[in-house]
Each structure stands twice: as structure tokens, then as C-alpha cells.
Amino acid sequence: MDLQTAEKEVKELHQLLNQYNYEYYVLDQPSVPDAEYDRLMQKLIQLEEEFPQLKTSDSPTQRVGGQVLEMFEKVQHEIPMLSLGNAFNEQDLRDFDRRVTQAVGEDHSYVCELKIDGLAVSLRYEDGLFVQGSTRGDGTIGEDITSNLRTIRSIPLRLKENISIEVRGEVFMPKRSFEALNKLKMEREEEPFANPRNAAAGSLRQLDTKIAASRNLDIFLYSIADTAQLDVDSHSGALRFLDQLGFKTNQERRTCETIDEVIQFVQEWTEKRPQLPYEIDGLVVKVDALEQQEQLGFTAKSPRWAIAYKFPAEEVVTTLKSIELSV
Ligand code: NAD
């Protein structure tokens, strides 16, 4: 491809991805499946690798999340809320492991977790009391949604220890609540939500807290923003500490010593995924030792010590299943 054609394609991809981001993050109403968005994003990443002069700072590849709604107070994230790099197949996971090994050596282990398909939030506690909760927003500035988060019963308003801490997690809507909500919306001749993720996001960004309270939202916490002052030296240790404080973490996590064990975890959850009472859109693999995480560092958009494995599109899975059945 010549530079001129690439430039034209890049421009078209910017326009499309910006539009899809707006629909997804601002309107909570995506018009295309996530797999289509991911395909276009990968295309843009490849073009930018091939033609680095076309990579601009406002490219969708360089940005986290979407715009911040004006109707909420803004919250500055002292520690940015980043996105995750993606893996779509076994090879991508092995490439990730190779990069990690190059940086920190052979001696490392991973924590594998479910990638909950919801909305990232940050919760701030002072002396054990819940004082502020916010959305990820654009990663640096989020929306203050404290009152809506206070309606989620699994968010402790007081911790088991009187410490000051900021923690991060994913708010989600269980499948059953999503189905009941969409049934109700259809009865009322309202537009149904496209998926539980958008339903959760739409519920949290309501000005009327009664609406969020009625939506049966839940949360899993998956990280501590700053572990510097704590007696924690691994991600698995941080998760155990969250449990001790009274937070809800996802118990389906597993420590894996090798990338083969990680791939085994991916295969298991690709099978078991439909049995879960909530939606996951993939799995997250994180280097366990915090010292090694520090060595690996970050890109502009995501940590180098973690990767999100994304499941193939549902449509594709369904087609494969129906082919299997008809044979
Ligand atoms: P991401 O979904 O690829 O991954 C980052 C997010 O994963 C984190 O912010 C966190 O919220 C979440 N997460 C869930 N479980 C986690 C765990 N255990 N540990 C750590 N993080 C966990 O990145 P993103 O920037 O949030 O969203 C991009 C994705 O959103 C796209 O790849 C696409 O699938 C979807 N999207 C779709 C459209 C559309 O139009 N359909 C538009 C924009 C984005």
C-alpha cells in the first residue's frame, strides 16, 4: 500500500472509530458489535506500525475511553485508569509472554482473571469510609458518580480497617437483571439496551439515584491504585488484601506459572463462559510480582505487564456450534 492510500484509510478509520467510541461511551448505545470495533482498531494499529508518520496523538489508538459527560462533576484521577492491550489468539499470548520474559527473565508468574464486561470505576476511601466513586472517563478525568455507586450493595460504605485507599473494579449487571430490565423496557415500548455492559453504564450515569438503585448492579474489585504504602508485593496479594478489607473480588482467578497454563485457563473459560451469571468478554493475564510490573512499565494507553485475551465474536461461536451440530 502506498502512503497516500494509507493516509486515506487512516482518516476513514479515525472517523469510524471516533463515531463508535461516542456511541459506546457517551450514548451507551453501540451500533456495531465489539468484534467489528476491535477489527477496525487492529487495522489502524497495523497501518500506524507500517506508516509511523501517520500516527498522531489524537489517534483512537492513543486514547482511553470516551468523553466525560458535563452533567456530572469531574474527578481527576491522580493515578490514570488505563486500558489493556489485546490478544485475540494463542500466538498473541505467546508473544506477550516472550516480551515479558525479555524484560524480567524466565522467573515470573501470572494471575489470570475473568474480564468482566461492565464499566470501570474507581472508589476512594478515607479512614475506612467510602467518600468518592468515579467512572474511568478518558483515563485522566472521570465523572463523579458517588451517589449512584452508594446504591450498589456489594460496595462497602465502611471498610474492615480504617485505612485510606483507592481501589478499582468493574460494575456490571447480572444476566438475569439485564433480561428482566429489557423485558420491562419492551413492555413500556422503550428502546432495549444492546447488552448488559451498556445497561450497567447507562444505569450508573443517571442523575436520579433511584434508577441506579432499581437496576440490581454489582461489582468486582480487581486492583489497588497505589500499593506503595501497603504491605503487598504481588497482584495476588493485593487481591487477598481487598478480600480482607471487605471488598468483593472475583474468586475464579488462578495463578499460572507458565504461558501453557495460561492458555489452559483460556480454553477452560471459553467453554465455561455461558454458565456464568454475568457476562465476560475475555480474560485478563497479569504479571504477579509488583516489582516485575514496575520493570515492565506502561505504554501511553496500557500496562506492559498485562494483556486482555478477547473471546471471538459470539456470532462466530454460534455459527461454529451450529456447523458442529449439523454435521
Ligand atoms: P478493554 O475492554 O479492552 O479492557 C480494559 C478494561 O477491562 C478495563 O478498563 C476494565 O474496565 C476492564 N476489566 C474487566 N475485568 C478486568 C480485570 N479483571 N482486570 C482488569 N481490567 C478488567 O478496553 P476498553 O478501553 O475498556 O474498551 C475497549 C473495548 O470496548 C473494545 O475493545 C471494544 O470491545 C469495546 N468497544 C466497543 C465499541 C463498539 O462500538 N461496539 C466502541 C468502543 C469500545
From TrEMBL:
Catalytic residues in the record: 115 (n6-amp-lysine intermediate)
Residues engaged in binding NAD(+): 34-38, 83-84, 113, 136, 170, 286, 310
Recorded coiled-coil stretches: 3-57
Leader sequence residues: none
Entry similarity comment: Belongs to the NAD-dependent DNA ligase family. LigA subfamily.
Task performed by this protein: DNA ligase that catalyzes the formation of phosphodiester linkages between 5'-phosphoryl and 3'-hydroxyl groups in double-stranded DNA using NAD as a coenzyme and as the energy source for the reaction. It is essential for DNA replication and repair of damaged DNA.
Protein name (database record): DNA ligase
Organism per entry: Anoxybacillus andreesenii
Upper lineage: Bacteria, Bacillati, Bacillota, Bacilli, Bacillales
GN (gene name): ligA
Residues of the full protein shown: 1 to 327 of 670
